[in-house]
Amino acid sequence: MTMLSDLPIEVILDNVLPWLAIPDLIHLGQTDHFFARLCNDETFWKRKLEEDFNFTDERTARISGWKHLYRGLLNPKTYVWGETSKGRLGLRKIPSTTLHDVPYPVELQIKSGARIVSLSAAGWAFFALDSAGSVYVWGTLNGTSYALQHDGYSEPAKPAHTPLRLDMPSPTRSISCGRLHATTLDDQHHVWTFLSWGRPFRLDTPALNATTLDSTPVLVESGWNFSSVLTKSGDVYVWWPFAAPLKDVIAAQDVAMDAANQKAHATEDGVIPCSTWELRQEPTMLPPLPQLPELPLGLAEPVKLVKLAALESRLIGLTNHGHVLSIPVESDVAVRSERWEYLPNFSEVDKVQQHPAYVSSQLKPPQSLRISHISAQFQTFVAYSPGSSSVILLGSHETHANSNPLILPALQNNDVISVVLGDYHYGALTSTGKLLTWGEYSRGALGLGDPGQLPPGQPGGYGTEARRSAAVANGGPYPPGISEPAEVSFGHGNAQRDKMFCFAIAAAGWHMGALVIDLEPPTDVQNDNDEDEGPPMPGRFPRSRETGESPQDYPGEPGQWGPPIMARGFRIGFAGRGAIRGGHLGRGRGRGL
User: Fold this and answer.
1) What share of the chain is helix, strand, coil (3-state, %, to 5)?
2) Which of 126, 177, 389, 546 has the fewest beta carbons closer than 10 A?
3) In this predicted model, what pLDDT tens digit does every residue of 99-150 receive, in sequence order?
4) What does the record list as coiled-coil region(s) (predicted)?
């Protein structure tokens, strides 16, 4: 008699376990060591998160803890803090603090009770993606202008003081924010550009019609004023919606839609009915990669781009072998004469080992290196590798082949899986769920606490009691910045704040946000030992086998093919840029947005 354990492991993981209810999975894992190992397989739970919660986590270098996250995503929490202008925090009530900002994380309640799985920040706003593929927005997409009270959300400067849901044709899979716009990718492989929340346009072009590997988008990335997309084959396309000729086409369309009274006013139940339209325009295709050296930990498969990160007017690319490259994307005309430039000091272990940060200090250099993730903001980018010996390398818009990265010792070998950047503040997320911030106070964007309440000398506070007392009495000045990363606590004023696990972060301008799960959820939450399956998993996407549709292939990592269990795996966009140009990594001063 054939036993279940006689089947090939791949068959069990890909074709048996995905169909089991969660309680059945737990029970199966308790039968013996063989099934205990299979039912705790990290890759299986990562895929399960994609399928059931629309959660890909492609923005981070996370390599473990997927089952823990699955349990926590039954009830994730959204926190925001920093500057409050333009409605960017989405809070109904702003807490009373010494300097009249929000200097610590405050939980944001989204009316529908949506399970938020991804967060992205623009210059004056946030975009949030839930487990059902719905997008929620708050703040102001274009904070450089103003809107009238009777304007709808076809007006870019119309603020959303509390979260509103965008009514789009199809579920969204990923979001990437620029300063004044955002780019999204939906489950039909359609690429959308938002210059306002109420009037997004779809790029209608044979180059991105998803009929071949070359034309199937897997990742979108927004720069300061441009959008880009990566296809499954590794090709990159770019377009500039704020510059001619697209700017003129968009302006003409706005006039026509205004005349038709398609203003996208929000409904009473908090929904923006998006007036979508199609823009038929060919994006600019970037040149192919140059000849690249073989790296020690490279793969056997051909080299191609699998990730993008956008600066103000430059793209950073990462290959499946770990090569980091850069290319200017100033304009449609200028980019045609540009070429990708390989950055060996951000890619090769022997080059990194020779960095002064390792040579002149006690910092332990990496014995091996494979850069797996990149992120960027305005004039700064970050390349990093996962694990307890993680390497975090920072570069700028001026980085070239001979440039050395900036290495902050406090971030090395610290399990850092994600780095985000605001104007003058920075954040790093660890695999253990800790958020570390450093930089300028930035109207509370460090999130370290009310400086008027913090003990003198504590990170985020004042240096002396005299200065603290003066600030409390006078409402200022702001406390000094910090150069060493300090940990952010969630659940301000709550004794349970140390029992929180942060799994995603976003930053821009003078604000920051995070997604957090409670390590001690309420007792009424269904646990692994429940006998019945209960109602369908909230936000669960229908499997093609359940709906009778033919299955589609989606990448687990951009550019890679996944087995049938893989849900629509796309990049979660990283935060965009605020209004003040402060992308340097040192101390800086600036005005609030």
Assistant:
1) 20, 25, 55
2) 546
3) 999 999 999 999 777 899 999 999 999 999 998 999 999 999 999 999 999 9
4) none
Are 353 and 486 in the same domain?
yes
Counted domains in the chain:
2
Per-residue pLDDT of 136-170, as tens digits, reads 999 999 999 999 999 999 999 999 999 999 999 99
How open is the CA angle 79-81-83, to the nearest 5 degrees? Answer: 150
DSSP reduced 3-state for 117? strand
Tell me which residue range forms the domain holding 8.
1-40
Q: What is the mean pLDDT of residues 516-539?
A: 47
In a domain? residue 66: no
**HSE-up of residue 503 (Cα within 13 Å, Cβ side):** 28
What integer best gives the mean pLDDT of the chain? 84
Are 125 and 247 part of one and the same domain?
yes
The pLDDT-based confidence of 388 (bands split at 50, 70, 90) is: confident
Last residue of a domain, one of 518, 546, 572: 518
**Residue 554 within a domain:** no
Burial 80-105 (b: 16+ CB within 10 A, else e): bbbbbbbbbbbbeeebebbbebbbbb
- Token pair of 63 as six digits: 């390599």
Cα 70 to Cα 275: distance, rounded to the nearest angstrom: 35
What is the pLDDT averaged over residues 249-256?
98
* pTM for the whole structure: 0.82
Find where tokens 């004469």 sit: 337
Query: What are 295's two structure tokens?
Result: 């790296």
Quote the CA–CA distance of 246 and 227 in Å, as a whole number: 12
Strands 271-273 and 160-167: parallel
